[in-house]
Amino acid sequence: MSAVVDVARKAPQAGVRVHANAGARVALLGTGTVGRAVLARLASWSGTALGGRLHLVHVANSRVAVADTAGVCPAQAGIALGAASVAAAGVPFAATVNVRPLASAPSSLDAVAIALGMSGPRIVIDATASEAVATRHAAWLKQGIHVVTACKLGQGTSLHRWREIRAACAERNARYGDSATVGAGLPLLRSLRELQEGGDRIQSIAGVLSGSLAWLFNHYDGMRPFSALVRQARDAGYTEPDPRDDLSGEDVRRKIVILARAAGVELESQDVEVTSLVPPELAALPKDAIDAALPALDASLRQRFAAAYKNGEKLRFIARFERNAQGEAKARVGLESLPGEHPLAGGAGTDNKVAIWSDRYRTQPLVIQGPGAGAEVTAAGLLDDALRVLR
Ligand SMILES: NC(=O)C1=CN([C@@H]2O[C@H](COP(=O)(O)OP(=O)(O)OC[C@H]3O[C@@H](n4cnc5c(N)ncnc54)[C@H](O)[C@@H]3O)[C@@H](O)[C@H]2O)C=CC1
Ligand SMILES: N[C@@H](CC=O)C(=O)O
After folding, report:
1. Model ipTM?
2. Where does 2-186+376-389 sit in CATH, by number?
3. pTM (predicted TM-score)
4. How far, in Å, from the CA of 360 to the mean position of ligand 1?
5. Please, which pLDDT band fits residue 85 given cuts at 50, 70 and 90?
């Protein structure tokens, strides 16, 4: 709703005309937790230099798409679509903004490249958790369209898809912005890549890679049911659309796979040993039935907490990746009981905390810590990547 208000208030400034080649045409896919924060951030930029860099011409969720068909004034298009897409997402939108009529249609991924046009910088921002969208990443890159994504299904699943994305980037000199996929925009992937560009070799990585699980274990005290905290984390926008993706370790599996591949190891997803927190009776349910069944988590976590507490330890959901001198790699993901003073036991809120050992950081690791989930930080990470495309 705030995006709508901002849009209405800032509409008069939309008269500032920005030439098309001053920025990129942008398609935003997803108007959920993260997509709305992207729209709000874009709306807050209207009339500023940053607002003139990214011109939103297509916004879609799984049901409906709105597109600016005239394409005359990119700055105005950005503002208009910011508002219209909020309406498309189901939020009431009072049509008080003086904008050109927009074309609205059932959502179709085929329409994305058409809406972006044929020339100039073009960017798809993927704020979905959609397999169908992820399978398009390589095809868009092959058309010279840059892709910026919060969704891990592009680089964090099959090695085949990851290779396709890398090859497409190289073929068309297209950029793949992935900062939001691990650490919700923290400078993690960038740091790994920069170390290697300087001749360093990554030896191992260990840390807390899930913002929602960090938040859960930072708040769980064995008194309140764990399931109640899961609902709270979901409502705060920290979990995946299906919180079982976090609790099962699948989301963290994808993240450690993305990190390992960025560290130069072509790890297969199935090579990661994952220990899930989800009991089989919860795993088997359809998505719309899980809320009522979340208490199935409670008893075993209460026991795990009590055992850790007795030993002065803390529960943390940890991902570990390491490779030996021969290049053999292994990775595992699961709940660990760590001594209270252990470096990875620290942190607060949704903090991710990741330690990287390399030839350079052999004894004392490089440690990167900060919020690892949440709509605003993730949207900022996505838009930082989109702006980076234009540098
Ligand atoms: N919530 C967070 O803190 C973070 C989320 N992410 C990632 O961001 C992505 C989005 O997460 P949320 O916003 O929480 O999910 P959400 O469930 O709130 O929103 C997903 C959106 O994608 C749309 N969508 C689904 N299929 C589509 C399609 N074919 N075409 C266009 N839109 C489609 C849905 O309609 C919905 O608007 C996920 O991949 C998640 O892993 C990444 C970092 C942090
Ligand atoms: N559900 C994820 C969101 C960010 O990727 C998490 O909890 O870290």
Report:
1. 0.99
2. 3.40.50.720
3. 0.91
4. 37
5. low
